[in-house]
């Protein structure tokens, strides 16, 4: 039952990432986390700040953590269908960070493209490594131990990225009422991490009881 709740929490976080984070009255100015990272990345104050592109980086890092969490669930799943499903989701999330085709045609100087390429490569490497855990007998234990800190990093990244985006948009005098997406993401990652922590503690108590 706890495993299913953990899976549902992770799916909630995934939905939250792609649901509106900035719910502006003008539809064109509303954005989910992925679009928000792209949007604020073109603002000069963000693009050329020190450090540059920090808000987009944090928002995208939240997606990297989500991809890795799905890879961990794939490694820990007992059913082949669940392993494949979570594995495909983790790979798709990592690949969604790929830069535009212009980057591969030689336009590599753009800081936004550089950040996307670096995060995409990092996400893919992590997904591959975590997926290999499934071949080890202790896959479930390893995935449980890694999930809480990854969920925490994802949540902190989301908050920092959103704060940076809001500050940048405030300078442009753009209204930024929050949408449901950010809350779904934070609740999903928080619940997933808490459930994994509870499973770890329960397993440790069971071992001590032996």
Please summarize what this structure is:
The protein is an all-alpha fold and 210 residues long.
Please provide a written account of the structure.
The chain has 210 residues and is an all-alpha fold. Helix content is 75%, strand content 0%. The two termini are 23 Å apart.
Q: What are the main properties of this structure?
A:
210 residues, mainly alpha, 9 helices, 75% helix, globular
SSE layout and pairing:
Blueprint: H1 2-18, H2 33-40, H3 44-47, H4 54-76, H5 80-95, H6 101-104, H7 111-132, H8 139-171, H9 180-209
Distinct helical segment count: 9
By DSSP, the count of extended strands is: 0
Shape: globular
The percentage helix is: over 70%
Compressed to H and E, one letter per element, the order equals HHHHHHHHH
Mean pLDDT: 88
User: Alpha-carbon distance between the termini?
Assistant: 23 Å
Strand content: under 5%
**Low-pLDDT ranges:** none
Rg value: 18 Å
Which structural class fits the helix and strand makeup? mainly alpha
Q: How many strands, which pairing sense, and closed or not: the largest β-sheet?
A: none
């Amino acid at each position: 039952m706890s495993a299913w709740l953990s899976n549902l929490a992770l799916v909630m976080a995934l939905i939250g990432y792609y649901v509106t984070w900035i719910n502006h009255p003008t539809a064109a100015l509303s954005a989910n986390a992925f679009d928000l990272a792209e949007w604020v990345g073109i603002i000069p104050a963000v693009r050329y700040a020190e450090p540059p592109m920090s808000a987009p980086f944090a928002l995208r890092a939240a997606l990297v953590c989500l991809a890795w969490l799905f890879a961990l669930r794939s490694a820990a799943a007992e059913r082949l269908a669940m392993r494949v499903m979570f594995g495909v989701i983790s790979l798709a999330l990592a690949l969604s960070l790929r830069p535009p085709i212009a980057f591969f045609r030689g336009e590599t100087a753009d800081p936004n493209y550089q950040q996307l390429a670096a995060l995409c490569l990092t996400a893919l490497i992590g997904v591959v490594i975590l997926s290999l855990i499934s071949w080890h007998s202790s896959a479930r234990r390893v995935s449980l131990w890694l999930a809480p800190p990854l969920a925490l990093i994802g949540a902190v990244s989301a908050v920092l990225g959103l704060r940076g985006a809001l500050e940048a948009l405030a300078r442009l005098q753009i209204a930024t009422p929050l949408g449901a997406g950010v809350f779904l993401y934070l609740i999903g990652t928080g619940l997933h991490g808490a459930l994994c922590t509870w499973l770890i503690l329960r397993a440790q108590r069971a071992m001590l009881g032996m």
